[in-house]
């Protein structure tokens, strides 16, 4: 189910971007993953917000005289059928689709001969012959036998075929409530044969049913909006699968996370779970995806660099806080990010010096490219070798590449008179379980 869910979300996003201007309910919102309720504006109606009700056109199909051949069309219905994998212009379905499903959908498109041909070519010739004998005479022996034996058939799509051919009151309850049919096929069928009021009622009942079951197929109805939160909570309550819900949240609802406590709660619990399992890299990748989809979620720096003399912040965030009327700001806080400072922009005192080369922090390194390449980690950037690094115990430090060179052969701090064994302190410790 999860594989199908991710595939559907990707398909829905592409289709929405392509077709959103044809449907008013989609073009007027910024929802990237709309559901059936979004397209039909059901949630807007229930919340009291005024919206334009759907108005569908009833079509009398004369090519196939079945139940008066009444179908309903509108831009909203067509879009819903597309996100459900249906196409009113073609019944060429995926190769992995079963032959009985192909035949059923061909029949639901009022193409009886095509349905018979599909069944015949797939080896279901007995079923094809039975369907070929269909007649619209309500007192015929064919209808009597089909009605009495329909419930004994094992294939849900064959049951749906005979239920459709023997339907008398156009309610189609036996098809809409057939548990063996996929949710998308039941929705696609309803969009073709139910009038507006019954369609909305069916969608509401189906949403409630799938929410109570905690089925993620209900996302097709709710879309990835705040209206899907009760369904996601029910799914977690029944499965404990906070991972799937957290991944859904950061990939499809990242913009809603800052203002929703429930989304933040799920994400925080999942991050804690990864940390407890010591999956640091997986948690970091999770955070990167979350922050990429919504940059406002990027946390503020917890460690800043400050001047030893005046105590002012000399990091980029600190420079942005200086007055724009200050001469120092115009000199040191240039918009060019490549400009490096060698003194405090506030008091103009020199910045800390490297314990090895004795040059101030921010000074361009004079190491050869060969040396930089030697100490550069695979996949890393040579820029990181010029970063200022310090010991958390003695607070002495210097350029990263210089400290790496020093501690290749030494254990103690390079500062004269300091006996701190920095190299032994910088090790990963495995805590006991």
With helices defined by DSSP (H or I, 4 residues minimum), what is the helix count? 23
Rounded mean pLDDT is 82
The share of residues in extended strands comes to: under 5%
Q: How much helix, percentage-wise, in residues?
A: 40-55%
Structural class: mainly alpha
- General shape: elongated
> What's the count of strands?
4
Termini separation comes to 35 Å
Descriptive report:
The chain has about 425 residues and is mainly alpha-helical. The chain is about 50% helix and about 5% strand. It has helices at about 1-20, 25, 35-40, 40-45, 75-85, 100-110, 110-120, 125-130, 140-150, 155-165, 175, 185-195, 195-215, 220, 230-240, 240-250, 260-275, 280-295, 315-320, 325-330, 370-375, 400-405, 420-425; strands at about 55-60, 70-75, 390, 395-400. The protein has a two-stranded antiparallel ribbon with strand order 1-2. The protein has a two-stranded antiparallel ribbon with strand order 3-4. β3 and β4 form a beta hairpin. α6 (about 100-110) packs parallel to α10 and α7 runs antiparallel to α8 (about 125-130). The two termini are about 35 Å apart. Mean pLDDT is about 80; it is low at about 50, about 90-95 and about 320-340.
């Amino acid at each position: 189910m999860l594989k199908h869910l991710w595939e559907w979300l990707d398909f829905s996003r592409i289709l929405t971007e392509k077709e959103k201007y044809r449907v008013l309910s989609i073009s007027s919102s910024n929802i990237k993953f709309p559901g059936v309720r979004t397209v039909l504006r059901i949630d807007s109606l229930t919340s009291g917000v005024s919206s334009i009700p759907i108005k569908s056109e009833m079509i009398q199909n004369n090519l196939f005289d079945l139940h008066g051949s009444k179908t309903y069309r509108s831009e909203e219905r067509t879009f819903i059928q597309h996100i459900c994998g249906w196409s009113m212009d073609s019944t060429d379905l995926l190769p992995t689709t079963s032959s009985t499903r192909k035949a059923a959908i061909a029949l639901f498109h009022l193409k009886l001969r095509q349905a018979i041909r599909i069944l015949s070519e797939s080896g279901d010739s007995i079923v094809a012959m039975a369907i070929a004998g269909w007649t619209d005479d309500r007192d015929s022996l064919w209808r009597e036998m089909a009605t009495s034996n329909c419930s004994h058939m094992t294939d849900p799509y064959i049951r749906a075929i005979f239920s459709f051919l023997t339907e008398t009151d156009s309610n189609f309850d036996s098809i809409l409530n057939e548990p063996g049919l996929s949710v998308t096929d039941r929705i696609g069928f309803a969009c073709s044969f139910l009038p507006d009021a019954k369609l909305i009622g069916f969608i509401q009942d189906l949403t409630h049913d799938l929410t109570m079951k905690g089925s993620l197929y209900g996302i097709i109805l709710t879309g990835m909006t705040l209206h899907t939160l009760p369904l996601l909570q029910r799914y977690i309550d029944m499965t404990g699968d906070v991972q799937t819900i957290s991944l859904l949240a950061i990939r499809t609802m990242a913009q809603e996370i800052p203002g929703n406590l429930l989304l933040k709660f799920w994400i925080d619990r999942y991050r804690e779970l990864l940390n407890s399992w010591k999956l640091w890299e997986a948690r970091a990748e999770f955070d990167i995806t979350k922050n990429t989809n919504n940059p406002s979620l990027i946390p503020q720096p917890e460690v800043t660099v400050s001047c030893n003399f005046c105590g002012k912040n000399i990091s980029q965030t600190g420079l942005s806080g200086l007055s724009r009327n200050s001469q120092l700001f115009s000199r040191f806080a240039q918009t060019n990010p490549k400009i490096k400072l060698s003194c405090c922009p506030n008091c103009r005192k020199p910045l800390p010096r490297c314990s090895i080369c004795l040059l101030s922090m921010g000074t361009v390194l004079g190491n050869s490219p060969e040396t930089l390449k030697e100490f550069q980690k695979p996949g890393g950037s040579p820029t990181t070798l010029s970063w200022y690094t310090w010991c958390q115990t003695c607070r002495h430090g210097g350029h990263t590449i210089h400290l790496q060179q020093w501690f290749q052969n030494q254990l103690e701090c390079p500062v004269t008179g300091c006996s701190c064994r920095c190299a032994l302190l910088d090790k990963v410790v495995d805590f006991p379980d």
